[in-house]
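Supplementary Methods. Inverse-folding protocol.

Structures were first reduced to a discrete structure-token string of length 251. This string, shown here, constituted the complete conditioning input.
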């Protein structure tokens, strides 16, 4: 365990499994007190908290729906009371990501993605920004996706929402920079986590074979990039997108 983020309070949304769990563990290992947000996976959230505390860190779980603006506001207040004002926010929470052909896509398909990648980050930012402005410091790290550059077929609803998240990142960076608050986005490639367990090995191998590094990434690859952006080492980096995909979007 390091003390790189010692004393900082970090909220990671959707942190009971997958990339969110890896990010929460990494921030905890670097000294942050981690608020592990989850929606329904009690056991997964408990496991992440246990892992962080077993390593000498500090963490607690907080159940709330990030897409509910009032719930987000109430939970940020609960975290503040239990742990202190939030210094770091990682917007990682997501929902189902179905492939839908253009002929079958509906406006609701788009709204279903926008609530996670626009509405939820906005609700959380509005709940924490007062404290961050008061301390003249803060770190917002949004979790995007390489699909914005790739433009995956039958995925327009998801691609558009992730593109909107990148736009928010850049706008917020400009608006919040005068208060010392940085806003960046980490864009992972296809990094297998629990929800990809049913994917066939041929698809995984085909993707990895096209990546310049000839492999798929691991959740910790993303977690380490997030931890860097959350640290003082990144205090002059804002409004940026960092691709963590083995070079899959080169050129």
């Amino acid at each position: 365990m390091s003390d790189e983020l010692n004393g900082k309070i970090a909220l990671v949304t959707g942190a009971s499994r997958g990339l969110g769990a890896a990010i929460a563990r990494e921030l905890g290992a670097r000294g942050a007190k981690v608020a592990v947000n989850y929606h329904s996976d009690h056991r997964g959230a408990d496991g992440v908290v246990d892992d962080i505390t077993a390593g000498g860190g500090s963490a607690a779980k907080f159940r709330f729906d990030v897409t509910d603006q009032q719930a987000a506001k109430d939970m940020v207040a609960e975290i503040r009371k239990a742990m202190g004002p939030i210094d770091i926010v990682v917007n990682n929470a997501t929902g189902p990501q179905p492939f839908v052909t253009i002929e079958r896509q509906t406006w609701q398909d788009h709204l279903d993605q926008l609530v996670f990648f626009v509405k939820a980050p906005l609700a959380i930012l509005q709940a924490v920004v007062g404290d961050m402005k008061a301390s003249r410091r803060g770190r917002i790290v949004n979790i995007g996706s390489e699909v914005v550059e790739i433009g995956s077929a039958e995925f327009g609803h998801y691609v558009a929402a992730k593109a909107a998240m990148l736009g928010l990142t850049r706008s917020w960076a400009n608006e919040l920079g005068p208060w010392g608050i940085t806003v960046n986005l980490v864009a992972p490639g296809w990094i297998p986590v629990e929800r990809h367990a049913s994917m066939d090995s041929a698809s995984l191998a085909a993707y990895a074979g096209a990546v310049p590094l000839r492999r798929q990434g691991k959740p910790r690859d993303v977690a380490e990039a997030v931890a860097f952006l959350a640290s003082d080492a990144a205090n002059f980096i804002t409004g940026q997108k960092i691709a963590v995909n083995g070079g899959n979007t080169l050129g």
